[in-house]
Each structure stands twice: as C-alpha cells, then as structure tokens.
Amino acid sequence: MTDMMVGLVFIFIILLMYFALQFRDVTEQLSGADKTRAEILRELEKTLKSKGVQVTIDTQNGVLRLPDAILFDSGVANLMPQGEVAIGHLASALADVLPCYTDAPDPNWHRPKSCPDTPHRIESLYVEGHTDDVPLSGGIQFRDNWDLSVARATNTYRALVRISPEVALRCARRAGECEPVLSVSGYGPQRPVPDHGGTVEERRQRDRRIDLRILMVTPDSGDAVRAVDKRLRRD
C-alpha cells in the first residue's frame, strides 16, 4: 500500500510539472502582445521618419509621440499646413498597418496575406492630446489647457479619418460585435512626459504633444487553461 501511495504521488508530481510547463508555454504565446505592439510602433516610426516626420516611440507604454511644434501654433487647436501633411503621412501608415491587427465590420473581410503571422490584435487606438502646465491667456476660445488638449486630439482624429476613411472602420471584434478601435482623449497637463532633464521650457516643450496610444487585446486566462487542457488530451 505504501509503495502504491508513493507511486501515485510521483505520478501526480509529474503531471503537475507537465501542466505547469504547458501552461507557461501557452501563456507566453498568449501574452506576447507587448512584443507585437513594439513591432507595430517601430514600423510606424520607420515609415514616418522616412517621410520626414520626426516622431518618438515609447514601446513600454505603447505610445507613438508627435510634438505639437509640427502640428499646432501656440494656443490653437487647428492643424497647421505642415501638421496636415504630418497627419496625412500618419493616416497612410495606419491604413497600411491596422488591417493586420484589427478586424472590419464586413464579416467577409479577410486579413491581407502579407500580414505577419500573429494572433495578437489591437483593442484600442487612442489619439491623445497633451499640453504643458502654462495657463492659457489672451483668448476665450478655450477655458483651459484641458479644453485645448481635447480639441487638438479631436481635430487630429478628424484629419486622420478624412484623409484615410478606412482607418475609422477598423474595429476589434468581441461578443459578435465589431467595435471601432480609434478614439480620442485629452489630458491637458495632467500626464507630462517623464522628466529626462533639461530646462523647464524644454520639459514643457516635450509635454506639448499628440500621443497615439495602442492597447492590445488582453489575453484571457481561461484561454490558457483551455489550451493546456486541449494539449493534455492530445498528448
């Protein structure tokens, strides 16, 4: 009886180790979205810089950053002519990239064959407006920097979809519905860029920007469990 109990415990430990290894393997596959997001950002950065649009990326937080100096005049929410050009290049880049990581309302739509072989998808794509902390003065169009940031983000969004209407149609499918991924938010001075040194004016200059923030579909832990169970049954 003792030998039988020891044998059962040994088998249990082996199965537990196997389950843990399989769970880790599947979870790594499901949670590789951050790596995919970084690749998307680098692709967008490369395309935009080749067009002369100087952007920066933050792969850790999933952000592509456009300084307001190339987009807006001080205290103004309408894009400058050179800003329209920059957003035009961004719209074209998104029109090329998004079909690989989003869906479309048309149920018969299929991903382009040229897309990377990846299961990861974009859940949301936020056009974020940010300003510095200097109070607005000399006008009544905007009550404060928060209003200005929202107006700038909204105008950037409108320019994107005017130039590339298909960008507004890209969506994330869940529960049978396909919800648009492109959206707008404004933060005023509430989310400054992390301090990388420089003068006060240099820091404020970095804070004045439009961010494009990518959120990926979060893996469902239940998917991992079901995938492991399927592997165990197969093996």
TrEMBL record:
Name of this protein: OmpA family protein
Stretches assigned to the OmpA-like domain: 59-218
Residue ranges, annotated region (Disordered): 186-205
Record keywords, A-Z: Membrane
Source species: Sphingomonas colocasiae
